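During the first year of the project, the team set up a workflow for recording each protein of interest as an amino acid sequence followed immediately by a discrete structure-token representation. This format lets reviewers and collaborators read both layers of information side by side without switching files. As required by the reporting guidelines, we include two representative entries from the current panel. The first entry is reproduced here exactly as it appears in our internal archive.
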Amino acid sequence: MTKITAELTKPLLIDGAMSTALEQLGADTNNSLWTASVLANQPALVKKVHQEYGTVPCQVYTLNNKN
């Protein structure tokens, strides 16, 4: 078994609190659809969260995008 295959047999937890991180960066949360609003109107905050998560060693990166 290759190392990659062996790694894939282990449970993998993917988590990254996007909403909490956006709130901490000052995202405008005064809207019932605020997370979508932030993607549309404050994309630099979303980028900053991704950049900050990117500094943490991990095996998987996931992205929050509007595409």
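The second entry, processed by the same pipeline in the following quarter, appears below.
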Amino acid sequence: MLPKTQEANTFLHKVLHKAFVESFGLSHQFFFLEFRDEAGEDHLLNIDTEVTSNYEWDESWGLTEEERVLVLFNKVNLKYLTYIACDDETNLVLRFENGIVVRLNGSTAHGYPEPWTLGNSPSQRPGGYTLRAFSGDTYSISQYSA
């Protein structure tokens, strides 16, 4: 595992330890999951990449990809994370208390450089941060202090 990947994984575990999905949706044509940690802090995961899962779909529903992702996010709403990890190709795996695994592809869907980012709101206040995954390549962590 590359050093930047190790650093990103350590950071993910630090900020999302004992966190659960508090909100989800679609904003400005991008999916998001918002987590709340045990201290009551919110963490926003913005997603611009393919989302896959171990969830079994009933094809008779006739859902679009966007609808599938929203249904999937509803299945993990208010569920705690039990595992989170990224790899050297910037793929991200999230496992939830109900057994659902969500995978974010490390390549962006719309040509932007970041397939996913994680930050707290507002990220540029003291104690704020942004973790950026760069398409199939590396990570960047920005932390802001007073």
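For the second entry, the following points were noted during internal review. The chain has a mean pLDDT of 92. The beta strands are 20-27, 30-36, 42-47, 49-53, 81-86, 92-96, 101-108, 116-120, 129-134, 138-143. Both points are flagged for discussion at the upcoming steering committee meeting.
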